[in-house]
Amino acid sequence: MNLNIGSVDRAVRIVGGLGLILLAAMGLIGAWGYIGMLPLLTGMVRTCPAYSLLGIGPRLDQAQETDMSLTQGEHATQLLDALLRRRDGRGLVKPVLGRSILEDVGANPRAGVMLGQARSLLDYICTVSEVPLVGQLILLGKEDGWDGAWATWRPFGSLLRAAPQLTIWSDQHVNLIRAGLVAPTAGVVKLWQQIEPLAEQLLNAALLTAQREIDRYVSECL
Predict the structure, then answer these.
(1) What is the pLDDT of residues 113-142, one digit of tens each?
(2) Same domain flag for 177 and 90
(3) 210: domain range?
(4) 182 lies in the same domain as 81
(5) CA distance 99 to 158
(6) CB–CB of 129/180 below 8 Å?
(7) Is 32 part of any domain?
(8) What is the total count of domains within the chain?
(9) Residue among 158, 168, 172 nearest 219 (CA)
(10) Residue-wise pLDDT tens for the chain (222 aa)?
């Protein structure tokens, strides 16, 4: 079954369908009100046969369908895999525009919310796994959302972005990140809210990892 009804369309169908059915059951409108079963059912299953047959209407784009069918951890895994496919012969990965990475995973280039949340989840997993922030290899074209309790991260943005560019991304790095993504996590926004008291501690951990990677790179160049 192809999901072709977006979240707003779905809400309208369910609310409108229930409203018609309720009005018909109360006798406020004729029996025709039970036609509300149609939008109600299509909204519940997120599929409209008419959209599929006629190719019209507010259909889901590929990114929206992915949002419905994948967890945030799976989104992050897709981004990780796309970055790893860009490794050069040495194992280095150059920064890539967010739009390009979305195209790599077959998502709509405008799916910025999904990209931002999956990217931030990758960075959290990297921080606790003592791995350079691989998510910083994805360029969003705007400043990171380091505000509130996370404002202390902003002055170190250049360092945190430089380290993953100098990292030789080995299978060990990848396995550590994948292990973290497999573990159940809360929604990304809720997750960052829950760990706000640990902002400074996590920053120290991220900086130590970044500095270690930069020191390794400098030693190899000397």
Answers:
(1) 778 888 888 999 999 999 999 999 999 866
(2) yes
(3) 71-221
(4) yes
(5) 21
(6) yes
(7) yes
(8) 2
(9) 168
(10) 455 676 667 788 888 999 999 999 998 899 999 999 998 888 888 777 876 676 555 444 444 444 444 577 888 898 999 999 999 999 999 999 988 888 888 776 667 777 888 888 899 999 999 999 999 999 986 656 677 778 899 899 999 999 999 999 999 999 999 988 875 555 666 777 788 888 899 999 999 999 999 999 999 987
Q: Are residues 51 and 115 in the same domain?
A: no
Residue 100 lies in a domain: yes
In contact, 50 and 57? CB cutoff 8 Å = yes
